[in-house]
């Protein structure tokens, strides 16, 4: 049986540059960690779902390099991406006598990765950390680029820091244990790269969506590699989201409103982004930037990936108004004006505002119950 050959994608950020290793079995291979900073102690931060599956395997690999390897298992779920849960990491670090050379390992999905990165950025004003993402969404997006954060009841990822990992280790074998819903949610972050940066990749996804949903290792390996290459290209030019990097948030302005409005964890992040991409594409069409055919093409792919193409109702009184209220808390909002990532012709994205009246029309059109 054919399998995906190991690949390395480089994030070029001067002294903060690092490698993304993509390979089957990479997590348990001690050579994946041979070029890390020298330290006595490592701390694996994971959650109660992932820990029984992979913590022992990662710990065994790390014992070849570290004298002491501790494990901290957090509660699982977006609703736990809070100050209270973050403090569990600090409690373990301080209680275990961890110093500023201690290396943290984020073992899990996007929530674990974001929280571990934020803890690493904050503990003793910064300790090294490694991303070991175990979900498709984390492998193609959240583990790469150094965005770390926790949620606030008024907005997603509003409290955090830019802090790059020293390495990302993507083990394709971990994707075999993903529930179908989680795999589909990850595909949302794969799909987004096509409309914003690489139309050929969008064509490839359309041709291979069945293989991706079947957890074909070669298809998933290529999707992860290409996604990471595009993100590396963007982050290498705009590490702190001063301009270009914002295009990576295609679908996220609407998506974050969905997550906050429903309550974190009700919809998976990728599900919210999927519906958000349809809304953003529809807004692009209403502004004359793409045609209706492209909107329908994107929606068809999202639907084939097992993802929602219709947004939820966040209010029975003024649904569009509730969306607008939540989107004004988004990080891209400037002076109260909501900034959207829009498609300026397939394969190209821009960040710009839009009239509230038009946004309302799009939300109303995209939140009809099927």
In short:
The protein has 13 helices and 11 strands. It is an alpha/beta fold. The strands form 3 sheets. A 7-stranded mixed β-sheet has the order 1-2-9-6-5-3-4, with helices on both faces. It has a two-stranded antiparallel sheet with strand order 7-8.
Structural description of this entry:
The relative contact order is 0.11. The protein has 2 domains: 7-177, 3-Layer(aba) Sandwich (Rossmann fold); 180-366, Dehydroquinate synthase-like - alpha domain (Dehydroquinate synthase-like, alpha domain, Up-down Bundle), CATH 1.20.1090. It is of the alpha/beta class and 370 residues long. It contains 13 helices and 11 strands. Helix 5 packs parallel to helix 10, helix 9 packs across helix 10 and helix 12 packs across helix 13. The protein has helices at residues 51-62, 83-95, 110-122, 136-142, 180-191, 193-197, 199-213, 217-237, 252-262, 269-286, 292-304, 319-327, 356-366; strands at residues 7-11, 18-23, 41-47, 68-74, 103-108, 129-133, 147-152, 155-162, 167-171, 340-343, 349-352. A 7-stranded mixed beta sheet has the order 1-2-9-6-5-3-4, sandwiched between helices.
């Amino acid at each position: 049986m054919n399998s995906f050959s190991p690949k390395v994608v480089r994030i070029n950020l001067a002294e903060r540059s690092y490698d993304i290793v993509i390979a089957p079995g990479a997590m348990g291979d001690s050579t994946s960690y041979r070029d890390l900073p020298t330290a006595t102690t490592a701390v694996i931060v994971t959650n109660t779902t992932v820990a029984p599956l992979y913590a022992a395997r990662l710990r065994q690999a790390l014992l070849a390099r570290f004298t002491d390897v501790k494990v901290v298992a957090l509660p699982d779920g977006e609703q736990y991406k809070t100050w209270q849960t973050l403090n569990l990491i600090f409690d373990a670090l301080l209680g275990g006598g961890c110093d500023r050379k201690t290396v943290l390992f984020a073992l899990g999905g996007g929530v674990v990765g974001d929280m571990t990165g934020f803890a690493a950025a904050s503990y003793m004003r910064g300790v090294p950390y490694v991303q070991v993402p175990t979900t498709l969404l984390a492998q193609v997006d959240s583990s790469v680029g150094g965005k770390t954060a926790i949620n606030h009841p008024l907005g997603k990822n509003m409290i955090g820091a830019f802090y790059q990992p020293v390495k990302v280790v993507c083990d394709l074998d971990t994707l075999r244990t993903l529930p179908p819903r989680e795999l589909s949610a990850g595909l949302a972050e794969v799909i987004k790269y096509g409309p914003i940066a690489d139309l050929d990749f969008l064509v490839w996804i359309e041709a291979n969506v069945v293989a991706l949903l079947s957890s074909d290792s070669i298809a998933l390996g290529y999707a992860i590699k290409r996604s990471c290459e595009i993100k590396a290209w963007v982050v290498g030019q705009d590490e702190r989201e001063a301009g270009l990097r914002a295009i990576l948030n295609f679908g996220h302005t609407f998506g974050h409103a969905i997550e906050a409005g429903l309550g974190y964890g009700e919809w998976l992040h990728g599900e919210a982004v999927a519906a958000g991409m349809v809304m953003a594409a529809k807004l692009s069409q209403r502004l004359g930037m793409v045609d209706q055919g492209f909107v329908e093409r994107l929606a068809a792919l999202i639907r084939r990936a097992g993802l929602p193409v219709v947004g939820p109702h966040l209010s029975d009184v003024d649904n569009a108004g509730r969306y607008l209220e939540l989107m004004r808390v988004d990080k891209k909002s400037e002076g109260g004006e909501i900034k959207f990532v829009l498609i300026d012709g397939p394969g190209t994205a821009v960040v710009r505002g839009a009239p509230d009246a038009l946004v309302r029309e799009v939300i109303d059109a995209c939140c009809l119950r099927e």
